[in-house]
Amino acid sequence: MSLNVGTREIEVDEEGYLRNPADWDEAVALAIAAEEGIELTPVHWMLISWFRTFYEKNERHPTMHEWMETLGGFHGRRYQEAKKYRDFLYQLFPKGPVQTLAKLAGLPKPVTDVEE
Q1: H helix and E strand count, the chain
Q2: pLDDT reported for residue 75
Q3: DSSP type of residue 12
Q4: Is 10 helix (H, G, I), strand (E, B) or coil?
Q5: 81 or 21: whose pLDDT is higher?
Q6: Where are the domains of the chain?
Q7: Predicted confidence band at 14 (pLDDT cuts at 50, 70, 90)?
Q8: 99-72-48 Cα angle (round to 5)
Q9: Contact call for residues 48 and 105 (beta carbons, < 8 A)
Q10: 43 half-sphere exposure, CB direction, 13 A CA radius
Q11: Is residue 44 predicted with pLDDT exceeding 80?
Q12: Where are the beta strands (DSSP E) in the chain?
């Protein structure tokens, strides 16, 4: 399978993840977002950047718990506040925040669909 990005044809797997992460750039992210039915906002771009940086430093995807602690600022806060942030992430990425962001960021498919 492939994804048309301008004049380039980018190889993707059957679920839309890049076969070669080196093919990723912002134009590829925009094309993937269009396939996913997502209009990328500045918040989306910030999360894509954060996801790529986390993966580069840790050689793995962040868990939902790590994500919420780091960006949601919910360490030690009430459950309802954390739940609101999680709900916000699902509004941005209805098919699953971790899976969708991995795809948009040009990263490999997460090993499991189970989130913390």
Answers
A1: 5, 2
A2: 45
A3: B
A4: strand
A5: 21
A6: 2-104
A7: very high
A8: 40
A9: yes
A10: 10
A11: yes
A12: 2-5, 8-11
